Structures are given as C-alpha cells and as structure tokens.
User: What shape does this take?
Amino acid sequence: MRVGILSLQGDFLNHFSILERLDVEPVLVKTPADLRVDGLILPGGESTAISMLLQSSGLFDPIRGLIRDGMPVFGTCAGMILLARSVIDGREDQVGFDAIDIAVRRNGFGRQVASFETDLDVAGFEDGPVKAVFIRAPVVEKVAEEVEVLASVDYQFPDSSGRSVPVICRQEKVLVSSFHPELVGEDRIHRLFLRLI
Ligand code: GLN
Assistant: This one.
C-alpha cells in the first residue's frame, strides 16, 4: 500500500516516520506526478502557506479530484483546516477541499502560548488514552449529522465559556484531527486511517 504525505510545508517528515513503522510505503507528494497513492495525509503546518503552495505546485485540482473519487485522506491540524467544508478566520484567498462537513475556526484555541497537551480518550481505542498536542489548533465549531466524532476535549475558553470541542472526526473516507499524533510518535490514529484505505 502506497500512502502519500503532502510535503509542501509543515511537519510531513513526522508522518513519514510513523508510516515507515507501519506496513506501508510512504510517498512524499510534492508534484502531481507523485500522486500515484492509495491514500493521502495532509500534515500540520500553516494552512494558508500550504494553500498557496497547493495552487503554485499544480496539486490542488488533482487532489480535489482524487478526494471526490473516494481517495481516503487524513488531515492533522492545518490538514484538518484544508479538508473542512468551511473555515472561519481564514485568509480570504485560502483554498480548501471541502471534504468533510465541519466548520473550523483557525487558531480557535488561542495563540502559540495557548498551546496545550492532554490525554484523550478515543472511541474504540481500548489500550489507553492518546497524548494529544495542540499547537495553534483549529476549533471545530460545527459538525454535520453525517460526521462521526471520535474524540472531544472539554475546553475553557478565555471568555470563560466552556464546552466540549470535537477533536477527531470522520466522514466516510475522510479523517481529521485538530492535534498532532505524528509529533509524539502516536500511531493508532494512523492505523485507523490505514483501515479506511
Ligand atoms: N494555525 C495553523 C493554520 O492555520 C495550524 C497550526 C498547526 O498545524 N499546528 O494552519
């Protein structure tokens, strides 16, 4: 199985290391010619920068086509933003794939200093919680009925409103997390993704 990692900007090499440990062939995707893959990971990084590079590299249209044709995709943090149906507080010219019916707010947990780490219970994971690292992460503000929420965090916002925020979501072949399993060597969410392929 060949699994692509969008490698234009961000922490794509961390995903590479995780996939190397699993029984698949990781492929760094930098140009349309690299897209002979069975699934694609969109890494964390900066969604506005990745958006610009997607267009200048000619990757945007072919990836959008492949997702429409059912290619499984997994986005972490900036990757979640790129896969969301709508983006609040994005750049006006930011493009995305509209692949999962959620609305996300960029940097919704606050600035870099508000980055945090927590232990997360994930639906179906019986061997303990996942260590989740949130770095200028998007907040999922709205989730359509067709979207399955696999994990949430109870979060106290600075205006002291607290609520449960979905942090792993799935709709058919599209999986997203607002944190970075790839940064802490956590491979269970990647394994979940491989089962979608
Ligand atoms: N804030 C970044 C963005 O808007 C995402 C941060 C991340 O991927 N850690 O794209």
Observations:
- The mean pLDDT is 96.
- The CA atoms of residues 122 and 151 lie 5 Å apart.
- The chain has five helices and twelve strands.
